[in-house]
Amino acid sequence: MLGYDWPRLHAALNDLPAALLLVAVLFDLAAVVTRRPSLRTAGFWTLVAGAAGAALAVVSGLQAEEHIDHGEAVHRIMGTHEELALITLGIFVVLALWRIARERRMGGTERAVVLAASLGGLGALLATAVYGGKLVFEHAAGIPTAVLQAEMHERAEGHHHHEAEGEADEHGTDGDGAPAMDADSAAVGPGAMATDSAQPAGHTHAPGTPPHKD
Q: What pLDDT shows up at residue 163?
């Protein structure tokens, strides 16, 4: 499907509806605190968009379940993840439909019930995300077995950096472990270095100084 398989599509569809539903609840909380109708309106439309996106994410997740390699541990976690996702979707779809039908006629008590249900849905959403994270980061769900085995083999071998032969390393030694010489030292040579070091250091006289013996 357009270069994606179901697990990849599910991963692509997960983040936006989760963010929208979280922001919808935050808008509603801010509307209660500030008593600004514009925030409540923003929460309403964000909720509707988030519920629609969550439906797509759940459908793709149900399809992805049938297309990934997994064992018994992944199957159990996947079952819990699926149940929480369906509960989350049910809560927010009901809330979206409720507010579509009643948004302009709600009283204070009814809005308080809606907000409480939204907070419950947010808790279910966070739990769903936790179990989804377990599937990916603890059990590598969605990664084909052959790819996972190849990656495990590469990690077992480790990663090595190879220096060019004869190239000095950062500790000032060449490829054989001997101290490295800079370009000037190499050009002069060790014999010349010894000769220069054996010569006494000379000194100069200021102009007009009479000759004298050293």
A: 52
Enter the DSSP assignment of 136: I
Whether the CA torsion 10, 89, 70, 67 is positive or negative: it is: negative
pTM of the model: 0.67
Which residues are CB-neighbours of 196 under 8 A, at least 6 positions away? Answer: 188
Residue 128 contacts residue 81 (beta carbons within 8 Å): yes
Pairwise CA distance, residues 7 & 67, whole Å:
7
28 closest CA partner among 50, 6, 53: 50
Cβ neighbourhood burial of 84 (10 Å; 0-12, 13-18, 19+): buried
Q: Is the dihedral of CA 195, 196, 198, 203 positive or negative?
A: positive
- Cα 193 to Cα 214: distance, rounded to the nearest angstrom: 26
Instruction: State the number of CA atoms in the 13 A half-sphere of 144 facing the CB.
Output: 6
Summarised one tens digit per residue, pLDDT across range 135-179 is 888 877 777 777 777 878 888 887 666 555 555 455 555 555 555
Q: Domains in the chain, please, with CATH?
A: 6-144 (1.20.120)
Task: Give dist(CA 195, CA 197) in Å, integer.
Answer: 5
Q: Tell me what the mean pLDDT of segment 73-79 comes to.
A: 87
DSSP 8-state code for residue 132 = H
